[in-house]
Specification:
The chain has helices spanning 3-25, 28-55, 68-103, 122-127, 132-135, 140-143, 147-155, 194-229, 240-268, 281-295, 317-333, 380-385, 392-402, 433-438, and strands at residues 107-111, 117-120, 162-165, 173-181, 185-192, 277-279, 302-307, 311-315, 340-348, 351-358, 406-412, 416-424, 428-430. With 439 residues, it is of the alpha+beta class. Strands 2-1-5-4-3 form a five-stranded antiparallel beta sheet, sandwiched between helices. The chain has a five-stranded mixed beta sheet with strand order 7-9-10-12-11, covered by helices on one side. Strands 6-8-13 form a three-stranded antiparallel beta sheet. The structure holds adenosine-5'-diphosphate.
Length: 439
């Protein structure tokens, strides 16, 4: 029998007894009322005991009860027991999480939805100078005030990490990442990358120094070879072919050294806003087209230029020239005789775009992601033969990054390639058409 049915039976029996007594003493109504009052009183007493028990969180064992109340006390007791066990388990997990995060070598800070600090580990105290005793509850931007960090925090796009000096020491470089989780909470993780940065700098310095050291001897050798070549119609007749080859190779070495120097300069120098100027891209493309025509003269290419005459760019003139010329000269070099090369310069609602489309040899799809790596060539022999350094597209990528622009490449083997530079709308300069025509 269920506890409720039992309770109903109990009430029926009580009322039955009261009726019998009432009948015997001829006070039926009074006896029934007294029985009901006793029954109600018993319930009120048990409700009072329940409330008292629930109000005392420390008191674990339930009061003794009878009837339906024994059942109610027992069920609540079991629920409480289950909850306590669950809480204990949760507390154990939290302690374990805190212990493991505290032991992590990376600085870890838990931020709430208002960017206030909720928790920091030991590494965060050392690397970011945060003190749990006084910084918990503080807005993170009050304690990490580097402009680049504030920008990163407010941008709310955390797909790429940020590199910045530590708030504790200028010489310490941090790689900071914010990871959203839970309900608008965020985890800030900072890793010390000072050593990696130093090694990168050493590598850059090494390449830059070695290129500088090689430049002068190469210029001297090239100069001597050139003057020796003047003598091939005389005493150096037998050396004609060898000198030709030596000259070509020394010119190639000079090109490699110059490209390496350009790359190290791009890597080492931040682009200063003052270096930027209005670049009249249409006139630059017109002269580039002439140069490309001269370069591929014997290949009889058709060179087309479709250009918005009013569209200019805000950037560094010689760097942009380097990007455009690298792409155009590549198109000339990798397009066989009689092919067509089309240069396009236009704008749409996403920004300005420079496009070089050729009908050349194309690039197999598996090589496309690696094209901008240094010294990567699809066909090393062919690239060397036509005087390539393997550094052109690496330079293009670097310069475009400095101009907040991106390179896209589409290609089909034996059908041709299209290289597209996407410039942001903020870099666009528009000027009246007359000034372009004059140029
Ligand atoms: P390289 O000096 O060898 O041309 P780049 O960095 O300019 O070096 O280009 C890297 C490689 O990309 C080239 O060696 C070539 O294999 C490939 N490539 C670049 N442009 C084109 C193009 N327009 N058509 C086909 N292949 C190209």
């Amino acid at each position: 029998m269920s506890p409720l049915s039992k309770e109903i039976w109990r009430l029926i029996v009580l009322l039955g007894l009261a009726s019998v007594i009432g009948f015997v003493i001829s006070e039926l109504l009074a006896c029934l009322l007294i029985a009901l009052a006793i029954y109600l009183g018993w319930h009120i007493y048990n409700i009072h005991r329940l409330a008292k028990w629930l109000n005392k969180p420390g008191k674990f064992h339930p009061p003794e009860g009878q009837g339906i109340w024994a059942e109610i006390f027992d069920r609540i007791y079991h629920l409480q027991k289950k909850n306590r066990n669950r809480k204990k388990k949760l507390a154990k997990y939290i302690t374990r999480f805190k212990e493991s995060t505290a032991a992590m070598p990376d600085a870890t800070v838990v931020l709430n939805q208002y960017d206030q600090i909720e928790w920091v580990n030991k590494a965060a105290q050392d690397a970011l100078g945060l003190q749990p005793s006084k910084d918990i509850g503080q807005h993170i931007s009050n304690l990490m005030r580097h402009p680049r960090f504030l920008n990163y925090l407010n941008r709310r796009d955390y797909s790429t990490p940020l590199e910045m000096p530590s708030p504790v020491s200028e010489h310490q470089q941090l790689n900071v990442r914010i990871i959203p989780y839970g309900q608008n909470q965020r985890l800030l993780i900072a890793r010390d990358v000072t050593r990696i940065k130093q090694l990168e700098q050493m590598r850059r310095d090494f390449v830059s120094n070695i290129s500088h050291e090689l430049r002068t001897p190469l210029t001297v050798i090239h100069g001597y070879l050139e003057s020796m070549q003047d003598e091939v119609d005389g005493p150096l007749d037998e050396w004609r072919d060898n000198l030709d080859m030596m000259l070509r190779q020394s010119a190639r070495m000079q090109n490699i050294v110059n490209d390496l120097l350009m790359l190290s300069r791009l890597e080492n120098e931040e682009l200063k806003p003052a270096a930027r100027e209005e670049v009249p891209v249409p006139s630059l493309l017109h002269s580039l087209r002439e140069e490309a025509q001269a370069l591929g003269n014997e290949k009889r290419h058709t060179l087309k230029l479709e250009c918005d005459p009013e569209l200019g760019l805000f950037g560094v003139h010689n760097e942009l020239y380097s990007v455009f010329s690298n792409l155009v000269f590549n198109a000339v070099r990798y397009t066989p005789d009689g092919g067509t090369i089309t240069l396009r310069w236009y704008r749409d609602d996403r920004g300005a775009h420079f496009e070089v489309q050729d009908t050349g040899i194309g690039i197999p799809p598996q090589h496309l992601p690696r094209l901008t790596e240094r010294f990567f060539r699809v066909d090393v022999g062919r690239s060397r033969e036509i005087g390539g350094t393997g550094l052109g597209l690496a330079i293009v990528k670097h310069i475009l990054e400095r101009h907040q622009a991106k390179l896209r490449i589409k290609s089909q083997v034996n059908r041709g390639s299209t290289f597209i530079c996407d410039f942001p709308a903020e870099s666009i300069v528009t000027y009246p058409q007359q000034s372009v025509i004059k140029l």
